[in-house]
Amino acid sequence: SVDADMNDDDREANDLIEPIDLLDSDIKDDIHSELVEDVYSENLEPSWFRCREDVLDVESITVTSMEELEKLRGYRRITGEVTIGDRNQSFASLDELRCLREVKSLDISSFVVDMSGISGLTRIFGKEGALSIMAGFSQVPEFEHLVEVHTIDIVIGPVPTGTLKEIRGFNALSRVGELIIVNQSYSTEPAIELVSISGFNNLEEVVGNIFIDGLSSMDGESKLKSISGFESLRSAGGLGLDKLNGTRIDAFKNLETLGALGISDSSFTTEGAFERLHTIKGVFNFERNRVKSMDEFAALKSVASIGVPYISISYNPELEDIKGLFNIKEAGFDEIYITDNPKLPTCQVEKFIEHLRSLGWAGKAYIDGNDDQATCDP
Questions:
Q1: Pick from 291, 294, 285: which is nearest to 324 by CA?
Q2: Rounded to an integer, what is the distance from CA 70 to the centroid of its chain?
Q3: DSSP-assigned states of every residue in 87-114
Q4: Backbone dihedral region for residue 230 (phi beyond 0: left; psi -120 to 50: alpha; all else: beta)
Q5: Phi then psi for 69, rounded to 5 degrees?
Q6: 59-82, pLDDT tens digit by residue?
Q7: Distance (Å, whole) CA 342 – CA 373
Q8: Is 366 in contact with 337 (CB distance < 8 Å)?
Q9: CA dist list (Å): 302 to 12, 194, 281, 329
Q10: Do residues 245 and 223 make contact, with C-beta atoms less than 8 angstroms apart?
């Protein structure tokens, strides 16, 4: 065993992949023309609305009152970035945006009681165009007609009476840049009752990261019971899961390749999750989790093939078994940390290091703080 002082700064992953323009212009135009016809045929526009054929041509606009929101009424396309309020404001609804189909970027920074007014969106067309939502008051629209967006960023904030139970839908998307769902509620503030995340079933690729973080209170109690969907997802630049306590992960069943994987501060069960994950190109961190084994990762064949500083399996108080990693056939990391797992037999860790050595791996191994008294089968 070797003692090691781990520098947090040295072990922090950088951004994985630069944003890109998700669809070329010809594909965009073809998809859009077909989809708009479908959307309009479903008569999403209420009878009391008259939608305009003209375009609102602005670089950016910030809405801070109902009077300003009413000025956007009826537009189908806004060429610039739209921001709705800030965290200190709230709106009853976004009905004035019922006609809106296309916008460069949309940032809903206020709490909105009824967000169904933006459910007809088909394209958020900026090269780094984002759909950013401060959620909590009510259900996030399913956005079943949205075919183009770079970033989806849903921030769940503290509200007096939150009714957000689930995030679902987004099933028209096949490719996005990033998907982020973050909780900013704390134990001293009203609890968010989000119990499930599902949908995204036609999403095949996330160019950057999927990040689901902080969906439990400071005392460790988690309301989030399940993550499902993502049935078509094959690859992502990275996947980060944090503070998912008691959550069932019934997603990512067809995921094959990741740029990086980080799971931390979580206890979870899986139903087929990661069963086809064979490659993690970069960093692999599994820290401070309350699970007994890593059997979910038995399909892994290649880890850190691009050459990264380290991988870490550390500070997992209930971890007893890492045999699920013994199918790895390629390892390109410089260092591995398997430390401070008090129930994990040191002899099993040593066998895993021997397995890596047999593959030609010549990096440094740090394996302190595991169970030195446990025995292993020959």
A1: 294
A2: 33
A3: TT-EEEE-GGGTT--EEEEEEE-SEEEE
A4: left
A5: -65, -40
A6: 999 999 999 999 999 999 999 999
A7: 10
A8: yes
A9: 21, 35, 7, 6
A10: no
Tens of pLDDT, residues 151-187: 999 887 665 555 677 899 999 999 999 999 987 655 4
Distances (CA, A) of 123 to 9, 61, 171: 38, 18, 14
Cα–Cα distance, 28 to 17 (Å, whole number):
22
The CA distance from 335 to 309, in Å, is 6
pLDDT tens-place string over residues 263-286: 999 988 988 899 999 999 999 999
- Which amino acid makes up residue 8? D
- Report the alpha-carbon distance of residue 108 to residue 179 in Å, rounded: 16
**Which of 285, 271, 265, 289 lies closest to 227 in space, CA to CA?**
271
Contact 113, 140 (CB under 8 A): no
Q: Per the confidence metrics, is the pTM higher than 0.90? A: no
